[in-house]
Design a protein that fits this description.
This protein has 194 residues and is mostly helical. 65% of the residues lie in helices and 0% in strands. The chain is built from nine helices and no strands. The chain is elongated, with a radius of gyration of 18 Å.
């Protein structure tokens, strides 16, 4: 589906076009937001607030070439703002509120009989030991299947940094002999990965 037309129509005040954008990207936004925040209600609220804000500010928005990274970046910023606000408002134990601490669990992976349960758990543990930036970039690259340019737009960092971060993260999996199980678990062909 070419979302250029619905985005343009939305910018001109078409509510149905905004609904089409919402329905097209809601699941991806929810999945990404949930990985970032870990709180379903917060993510639902942030997505709703994001689209309300888009509608309210449509006259100030510009056309975008690729809507998915635009929405991912906007949601990511909105979640960061919400988490920072929670931290400021927390009076008792602000240490329990972490900002963008993406982690992996078994639900993130397709069940694959070629990878024993023990190995799956080792892959998940290894991924969760990576830095927060490595976990997020690996998520965007291999789970959302975004290209380097799109990840760069979402995170606001250069492509070489993204490549280096992925390389370092994948090196950890290679060092533990977990690279093949990782790709089997996400059902991607490791020979095709750049």
């Amino acid at each position: 589906m070419n979302l250029q037309n619905p985005w343009s129509a939305f910018l001109k005040g078409d509510k149905n076009a905004l609904s089409e954008v919402f329905l097209t990207y809601h699941d991806d936004l929810f999945r990404y937001g949930l990985k970032l925040a870990g709180n379903e209600e917060m993510v639902k609220d942030c997505i709703q607030e994001l689209f309300l804000k888009l509608w309210k500010n449509r006259n100030n928005l510009k056309p975008v070439q690729n809507i998915k990274p635009y929405l991912f970046k906007s949601l990511r910023n909105h979640i960061l703002d919400s988490m920072e606000l929670q931290k400021l408002n927390a009076t008792l134990d602000s240490e329990n509120i972490s900002v963008l601490n993406l982690s992996y669990n078994e639900d993130d992976f397709k069940v694959n009989d070629q990878v024993p349960e023990e190995t799956r758990l080792k892959v998940i543990q290894a991924l969760n030991k990576l830095t927060a930036r490595q976990r997020e970039i690996i998520y965007l690259r291999y789970f959302e299947e975004l290209d380097f340019d799109t990840i760069s737009q979402v995170l606001g960092i250069n492509i070489q940094s993204i490549r280096n971060t992925i390389h370092r993260g994948m090196q950890v999996l290679r060092n533990h002999m977990l690279i093949l199980p990782f790709f089997l678990m996400i059902s991607r062909n490791p020979l095709l990965v750049s």
